[in-house]
Amino acid sequence: MTSPAAAAARRVPWTLVVFLVAFTIPWFGSRYETFLATQIAISALFAVSLNLLLGTTGLVSFGHVAYFGIGSYVCGILMKTYGLPFAIALPAAAFGASLGALVFGFFCVRLTRIYFAMLTLAFSQIVWAICFKWNDVTGGDQGLPDVPYPDLGWMSSVPLLDELRVSDHFYLLTLVLVMLSLAAMQRIIASPFGRMLTTIRENPERAASIGLDVRGYELAAFVVAGGFAGIAGALFGIFNRGVFADYVYWPKSAEVMIMTILGGIDHFWGPVVGAATLVLLNQEITSYTEYWPLVLGAILLVLLFAFPGGIAGGLAAGFAWLRRKRAERAGA
Questions:
Q1: By CB neighbour count within 10 A (0-12 exposed, 13-18 middle, 19+ buried), where does 63 fall?
Q2: Among 73, 139, 142, 204, which residue has the least CB neighbours within 10 Å?
Q3: What are 255-295's pLDDT values in tens digits?
Q4: CA 271, CA 320: separation in Å to the nearest integer?
Q5: pLDDT digit string (tens) for 88-146?
Q6: DSSP states of 55-106 as a string?
Q7: Are the C-beta atoms of 212 and 121 separated by less than 8 Å?
């Protein structure tokens, strides 16, 4: 039997509560906390987009950073080189990343397992090489510094927002865009299309035997995930006031993979938890020791062994255990 308190807790719109709390950070938090919150929001969007492939479709992509990088470069070039507004540059970034995912995915979905993963990595390295060598367009190893902030002057005329800094305005814009993107991805996963992806993840041979176009669905998932990764990349380039070839290099793929697995690939909000955990751990540890990779690696090992289903999976199992104990006590 479910207790009244537990039933009431389930009715609370926790996603909306978290969003509202995050929205108040510029007023009640410091400048540093707003900086961290922006980084977490963008990383969370990037990680959830990867999980659309990894957790929902069962495709292990080592090259998801390619679409993140394409989005950041498209947005950065359009805003800095051509002076286009953010309202045009952001959709263009998502479109460019989706187009790149369509081209690369056309070849990748023809392979399976480790061969699929290695081909995604190969394509991301090709994108990195283009960004690193195409000096006239991408700036080469110097990148594109001084990417401008979007024109958010209209926020200064809104009561309560007029006292905030430009970076605070960008954080609020980022938070809204990330939440809208997450809501769209959650809706996609819950749709019949998302259920087909889950069926393919569980047993692609059986899915093909009942008439599903497995490669077509996998390619569609590739394109959707690439588009959202492109949005994350565009926001990241503006957040860092520059776009550089490091954004497309393979360690960035490893980082987002760790976020996703650490948070839990079987839960939609798992990658969000993983992104927040990794960003906060990284910031705290680097402030105390220069041997931060050693300390961070040790902590991640402990977390991964303690929560084999990810942090979100561990929390869900803990709450389920508490509910069982309460039910046993109520029935005794």
A1: buried
A2: 142
A3: 888 888 888 888 888 899 889 988 888 888 887 777 777 87
A4: 20
A5: 999 999 999 999 999 998 988 888 788 888 898 898 889 999 888 888 888 888 888 88
A6: III----S-THHHHHHHHHHHHIIIIIS---HHHHHHHHHHHHHHHHHHHHH
A7: no
Residue appearing with tokens 């540059």: 89
Instruction: Give the distance between the most distant pair of CA atoms in the chain.
Output: 75
DSSP string, 7-33: HHHHHS-HHHHHHHHHHTHHHHS-HHH
Rounded CA gap, 247 and 233, in Å?
8
| pLDDT score of 332 | 61
Amino acid at 14: W
Mean pLDDT confidence for 198-207: 86
- For the chain, the residue count is 332
* Alpha carbon distance 179, 123 (integer Å): 29
Q: Is the dihedral of CA 75, 77, 78, 83 positive or negative?
A: positive
Please list the alpha-helical segments (H only) found in the chain: 4-11, 14-23, 25-28, 31-51, 65-76, 86-108, 113-133, 135-138, 166-190, 192-202, 204-209, 214-239, 250-263, 270-286, 292-306, 310-331
